[in-house]
Design goal:
345 residues; 37% helix; globular; alpha/beta; binds nicotinamide-adenine-dinucleotide; 10 helices; binds uridine-5'-diphosphate; Rossmann fold
Length: 345
């Protein structure tokens, strides 16, 4: 990895205006680096990075990574976080989701190769599909329905992993893979569609808490500050581990347990309602994080009760003051779906 003369690194964060990406940009800038955020604002809002826009070391480029990106400024590291992550959002325009992971990742790998930059690909626990092994270790090859409605995301991320490992084996890019398990925190959009933001927003609005299926399915929830620490640890560990690394919180909860926690922590009149379980929804999920502990010395520190309290506080403050960020007129199917969600259709 190249060291700049003044000790600073120049770091490109694709998806830098998103929920995780904006926290990563904050942390990298606070550590004294230059940050170039690249984002199409497909599933995020400029509001997330507005406080950074006057920072002398921050640059924002509006760009869809499905198109080639050429940057002349020398770049030391590239984090690829650009991809819709919420199931209703990635299913809204499945072809574009797949292209984002395949063509978009190929474009960013080409940029990394040109600059000799280290590359960290945000992969996902979804590469394990509806897992038959529990908890999920990195050597499990997964159980993904390649023709189902989640395939645009799961198979796209699997293809991106394949490309990264090929570029690594060929000695062309110092590529690293993180498999992120369900992560939550401030700056998720209220209409994101994922479970924690949905439940907290519904409870604060006294709306029914929507539980898909019987609510016995499980997830393991990681707070965003823990994830960001893990991303940076994997990007900077020397030598490159050359294997994918799970980053997640092994605390496992049923969706009903989560809903009960939200109900007990908010002054709400909401009640639980059940809705149909989406097709191929994984029944259980929990990371085995032994590899992250051993290779990175990483483990999560924020328990769900603490992170949830922060989420409730965040949405309580922002729901009343934040203007709608929905585009007025949808230009793409994904935007149309987002607008429909925002309008409660
Ligand atoms: P997010 O939707 O908030 O952020 C994704 C960002 O990427 C958004 O700013 C969006 O506008 C941008 N984007 C999407 N497609 C793009 C494209 N083609 N070109 C340029 N920008 C594009 O989601 P997030 O939760 O912050 O997720 C960040 C990354 O982490 C994603 O790659 C996601 O797959 C991965 N991940 C997240 C989780 C999680 O629980 N948060 C779990 C597993 C993996
Ligand atoms: N879920 C739910 N109600 C919601 C949103 C999600 O019951 O309003 C369920 C969903 O079916 C899944 C779990 O919560 O079983 C986690 O969903 P999320 O979309 O957050 O992430 P996933 O892990 O499925 O990608």
């Amino acid at each position: 990895m190249l060291e700049r003369r003044d000790g600073k690194k120049t770091i490109l964060v694709a998806g830098g205006a998103g929920f995780v990406g904006s926290h990563l940009c904050d942390t990298l800038l606070a550590a004294g680096h230059r940050v170039i955020a690249v984002d199409s604002f497909l599933t995020s809002s400029r509001v997330n990075v507005q406080p950074l826009e006057n920072h002398p070391d921050f640059q924002l480029i509006e760009h869809d990574i499905c198109g080639a990106l050429d940057i002349e400024t020398p770049i030391d590291q590239i984090y690829n976080l650009a991809c819709p992550a919420s199931p209703p959002q990635y299913r809204a325009d499945p072809m574009h989701t797949m292209m984002t992971s395949v063509v978009g990742t190929a474009n960013l790998l080409a940029l990394a190769e040109k600059h000799g930059a280290s590359f960290l690909q945000a992969s996902t626990s979804e590469v394990y599909g509806d897992p038959e092994q529990h908890p999920q270790r990195e050597d499990y090859w997964g159980h993904v329905n390649c023709t189902g409605p989640r395939a645009c995301y799961d198979e796209g991320k699997r293809a991106a992993e394949a490309m990264c490992f090929d570029m690594l084996r060929l000695g062309r890019v110092d590529a690293r893979i993180v498999r992120i398990f369900n992560t939550y925190g401030p700056r998720m959009q209220p209409n994101d569609g994922r479970i924690i933001s949905n439940l907290v927003v519904q409870a604060l609005r006294h709306q029914p808490l929507t539980i898909y299926g019987n609510g016995e399915q499980t997830r393991s929830f990681c707070f965003v500050s823990d994830l960001v620490r893990g991303l940076i640890a994997l990007m900077t560990v020397d030598p490159n581990p050359g294997v994918p690394v799970n980053i997640g919180n092994p605390g496992e909860f049923t969706i009903l347990e989560l809903a009960d926690m939200v109900l007990s922590m908010t002054p709400t009149r909401s009640q639980i309602v059940h809705r149909p379980l989406p097709k191929d929804d994984p029944q259980r999920r929990r990371p085995d994080i032994s590899r992250a502990k051993e290779l990175l010395g990483w483990e999560p520190t924020v328990p769900l009760s603490e992170g949830l309290a922060e989420m409730i506080d965040y949405f309580a403050r922002t729901l009343s003051e934040r203007p709608s960020t929905a585009p007025r007129r949808a230009k793409t199917p994904a935007e149309a779906a987002r607008l429909a969600l925002e309008l409660g259709a």
